[in-house]
């Protein structure tokens, strides 16, 4: 077993690194030097915790493996790796738990949205049924009021005086159209005497053929 600086006697605090004394490992997991072992009442009681001792072993390379591992410095490295592994696994578990909680929250929100959409769909269907009923009633009313389907006129009833004036106006319009149709059409005859032909000799430019072209009409060279 390689000597380490932290191994010491739990009573006198003498270090094992000095290599001046022998050290013993007690069954109660205390360490005593050879001089302090005299206080154990011949190896029966631990002077530190006052517990009965089952056995004690000298610290050397021939120790039992189970007792030797308490003094192995490499166990600290293993402990550090184990600690980092535990921290890593703990963080991973926390991350998984947070993800599960987020999924649950998202599922609850989706359920609320689904319920809201269903309510809106029901309300829309109800309004659509009301609109269809209103449209059907309106079409039935128009069918009853339209003369094409044998119903009454769209306008209200006409009084007797208005009906008489309408008939008289219709008769007068018919008579006037008949008179215009029987009236003879007069043919327009043009007045020949009043038609004057324009003179061809007025304002006629001079020409060589009739001798009216003189020297004064020749432009200077």
From TrEMBL:
Q: Name one GO biological process term.
A: reciprocal meiotic recombination
Question: Keywords in UniProt for this one?
Answer: Meiosis, Metal-binding, Zinc, Zinc-finger
> Residues in domain RING-type?
9-50
Give residue spans, biased composition: Basic and acidic residues.
170-183
A GO CC annotation recorded here is: synaptonemal complex
State the residue spans of region: Disordered. 142-221
Note the PANTHER family from the entry: RING FINGER PROTEIN NARYA-RELATED
- What is the recorded name of this protein? RING-type domain-containing protein
